[in-house]
Specification:
The protein is an alpha/beta fold. It has one domain: Rossmann fold (3-Layer(aba) Sandwich), CATH 3.40.50. Helices cover 46% and strands 14% of the residues.
Amino acid sequence: MMNTARQSPVAVVMGSDSDLEVMKSCIDQFRAFEIEPEVRILSAHRTPAAAGEFARTAAERGVKVIIAAAGMAAHLAGALAAQTTRPVIGVPLAAKEGPMGLDALLSTVQMPPGVPVATMAIGRAGAKNAAVFALQILALSDADLAAKLAAFREAQTQTALQKDAALKR
């Protein structure tokens, strides 16, 4: 349903189908900018060969930025980053058991020199910010997308100012 035959400049990869609920905010953010991301479920531990192949062939498929979300050991972003020179954005996720995502955050952010992963906040806010960050990267070479991002930021500003004005009343 979410995968498309058409090439997408972004891919959203999750370690498990249980991550989809949180990553929906990321996918929806792309759709708000009229970009249908390539969405996959691949695991650094359960499907390492498929995950590696996915990352190695990203450029061939037109993928410019990869977002990888995982919890617990959260090796997915790093495993993908090791197989591609495309920017990888990691979204650490909280597991049902464990230290509320801190384990995933540390696993995602602590990469060895030369294999970077841009790491967002844990959970939904991080998922949405990952999409916005990817859009900013894509907008470097897309004037139309840059204009949409500027309008998005202005709308955020106006919403905040309206809430402030309502509070003063």
